[in-house]
Design goal:
By secondary structure, the protein is α/β, with parallel strands linked by helices. Helices cover 37% and strands 17% of the residues. The protein contains 8 helices and 8 strands; from the N terminus they run H-E-E-E-H-E-H-E-H-E-H-E-H-E-H-H. Strand 6, helix 5 and strand 7 form a beta-alpha-beta unit.
Length: 175
């Protein structure tokens, strides 16, 4: 564990995540009928479930609008979803208010320029290994994993470990 993680993660109660390029590899596939598909990484989904099981909140905030995101959120039990917000900061603030958290209690993970205003206004700003250079410069943490390949899981594990909560969530028979 990184020695400063405890102080940084102690107040965190909410993780807000961008979708494209964070929970996916950023590829958007559109078929001839105009139907969009995205690929999600199963371990990210399990990490989100563990985060929520530990009693914390998780929300999605994306500039695009897609049925796929709605379905994936439902599958993971994520109730906080805001789609179609090109200007993410007002939407992020509205979600924080609805959930009842202060900016210093929020971690935001994004990968590109539209994510920067939110990242600059939360307690813990995180980005993925393959993010835009400017975003990496702004982030407190950069994950080892790229977007859509376990970056969110890595983030959740790191926060839960720092909070001393990870061990509770690992099946005891394996310890």
């Amino acid at each position: 564990m990184h020695h400063r993680d405890y102080e940084v993660t102690k107040p965190i109660r909410l993780i807000l995540s961008d979708v494209d390029g964070v929970l996916t590899d950023g590829m958007i596939t559109i078929d001839n009928a105009g139907v969009e598909s995205k690929s999600f990484y199963v371990r990210d989904g399990h990490g989100i479930k563990l985060w929520r099981k530990a009693g914390f909140e998780f929300g999605l905030l994306t500039a695009r609008n897609s049925q796929v995101v709605k379905l994936r959120a439902q599958e993971l039990g994520i109730q906080w979803v805001r789609q179609g917000f090109a200007d993410k900061l007002p939407a992020a603030r509205e979600m924080m208010q609805a959930i009842g958290v202060q900016p210093h209690e929020v971690c935001y993970i994004g990968d590109d320029l539209p994510d920067m205003p939110v990242m600059a206004n939360v307690g813990l700003a995180v980005t993925v290994a393959d993010a835009a250079t400017e975003v990496k410069q702004l982030a407190h943490w950069v994950t080892s994993n790229p977007g859509g390949r376990g970056a969110v899981r890595e983030l959740i594990e790191r926060i839960l470990q720092a909070k001393g909560r990870w061990e509770d969530l690992v099946p005891s028979r394996l310890r």
